[in-house]
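Cross-posting from the modeling subforum.

Setting up a comparison between two proteins and wanted a second pair of eyes on the formatting. Protein 1 (sequence, then structure tokens):
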Amino acid sequence: MSIYPEEVPPEPDRTEGALHPRFTEQVFGHAAAEADFMAAATSGRLHHAWLLTGPRGVGKATLAWRMARFLLATPPDTNDDALLAAPTSNIPDIPTGHPVARRLRALSEPGLMLLRRPWDEKRKRLRAEITVDEVRRLKDFFALSVTDGGRRVVLIDAADEMNKNAANAVLKVLEEPPANAVLLLVAHQPSCLLPTIRSRCRGLHLSRLGPADLHIALAQAGVEAADGGLAELAEGSVGAAVRLAALDGVALYGDLLALLATLPRLDRSRVITLAEKATAREAEAEFDLTLTLFDRLMARLALVGTTGRLPPEILPGEGEILARLAPDPPTGRAWADLAQGLTARVRRGRAVNLDPAALILDMCLSLDQMVARLPA
């Protein structure tokens, strides 16, 4: 049974098929980031703004919510000896029954303001960006008196989804932060943020998870990763693994590999089958995943060609196909060049409502032409 009421709108900061990060208690593979935060929190030099960066789906939001739980459960004048005695090498666990933990799960904690892409009730869809109207709510939030003398935490997920006006409004808060306020900014593409925002935050960079940590994190998210190919295909991202599992991504990757195995004699029947699956009614997620996996496949071809090294196989026989289609560095560079523009062109075509099946066919023909130019 789902913990989410049916009437609750989609949440932009939750991966489909997984719990929202506020329900996830543990973070795996990021001990160094936790240690950096706790060293600041216990030294009396807690920075007022933290920027959590790294690949999408590696646990940035989970860590941000973990930080928020700790900050709100341990106000500056706390006398909780158990929490203060906790080791500083990692963020202490806040029990699930703690009042702050319960309120955070219910999004009813008065000390927290969550900024994310809002739901457009009129159009019944999420807005494409975080608007300045969302950020303006901070004025009332900071104006509220904190009766227990505790902290106020602002969590922005994702900060790189703010439009220009929203970003400028957040910058003003960073320049003159209220007392006992901490801002936690999650960013998948920090280069999209204003340099002045980045410069006023203390950074915590989270890297891709190793196989062991990824499997543990997936188990916490309720996803079985018995197939080793899923972990390799997800490239250390829990979010990517959840999405791949929900859409049977490993099987789809196998379809793409089988298609590439026919090049340079493109199997049109396989292309038609692929296009039908990716462009069926209400199959937008499958279409997007198909393009993402084409990107991943071309990146692996570029890697094999330029380095001469085969990565761990996602599926049996993949190495042979990659080695044949990317036999040398010049070919590897050609695959890299093709990858830069091919799926982006298809996405642009989809955005202007071109026939998605025709777009898939055009992409496959481009791959066929690429392989046809290889030396025999």
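Protein 2 (same layout):
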Amino acid sequence: MRVTIFFLSLVLSSFLAGAQTPEPAPQPKSSPPNKPSFIPFPILFSQPETGFGYGLAILPVYRLGADTLTRPSNARLLLYRTTEKQSAIQLTHNIFTAGEKLIISGELSYYYAFPVNYYGFGPGTALDDNSKIQYSLLIFNQRVLRRVVPHLFAGLQYRLTNLSDVRINTGTEDGRPSPLELRPLRERTQTTVSSGIGPSFLYDNRDNILSSFHGNYLEVSALFNGGALGSDNAFGRYQLDARHFQPLFRSERTILALQLLAQFHGGYVPFRELANLGGASQLRGYYEGRYRDRQLLAAQAEVRHHLFWRLNGAVFGGIGQVGDSLDSFGEGGLKVAGGGGIRFQFNRHDRLNARLDYGVGRGGSSGVYFSIGEAF
């Protein structure tokens, strides 16, 4: 679940986040670790399910180690509350230790009484299948990878989700029962804990993880959930995430970004843990979770171009599908989306952007997305 955030105070906060830093000059071979800034700044956002929201954000970027080959680490802390009396806290981090011997990344988030649109599962769901549900959710995800050779890392990941207080507010728009009511009773009336551990392998030679100009990212991972780890359901998740970045026209003013994402599940998968299409990161133009099922394949491309001052523009397009199995991917038609947006670089030194995107999908689906960092 991703909250779309509108940073009305970006221009002001850019001064707090290093906006007065000049354009970076060529860096020496070594430099002392820099100190992160923990200065909070206000945020405002709005989305149909929550109404208006407000809160604080802290976005430190820092380098561990004395060599410039160690890429900057970053974190994001968001605290917010909505006019509908929902509240949430999100903490994410990506840490590169000195010499990039370790990569430590993860998330700790808690959402209280958060509503979502639920359309059921499968590639053929319709807009009138929509029903409103809400739940409280705790997410803890941690990955620790050790460098094997330059740019290649291997390690373990652990993920815990605790879903509770599931409430079905209404049926569908035409009065039929909510699609969630067709799921097993334990998924909608009791706490559902998913707890899994598994291997993760990563090749990453991107020049900057916040906004890449060139390089490749390839992650292959598996997650095994079972009763021995306290999980209510036994299921496996297998994921591949491949990305490529390169300048166009022999200039870093224009960047081509590509991504291929595959996620496959086996076993009994709770509805909240199914693979889903849409949202602020992939197939923008579809509501996050508009389509969900056991298997997913998606690809997207984006062209990013520097306009002037701190502003960049982007155009993007994507295609994807979900299904119970690969054989069912032909059902319901491929999901296609595209759009464009602008970026405001409020931390030029570390290329940390805030973005505003508008995407359009098939069947009258569309969305506006405000977020920190690139989509991928």
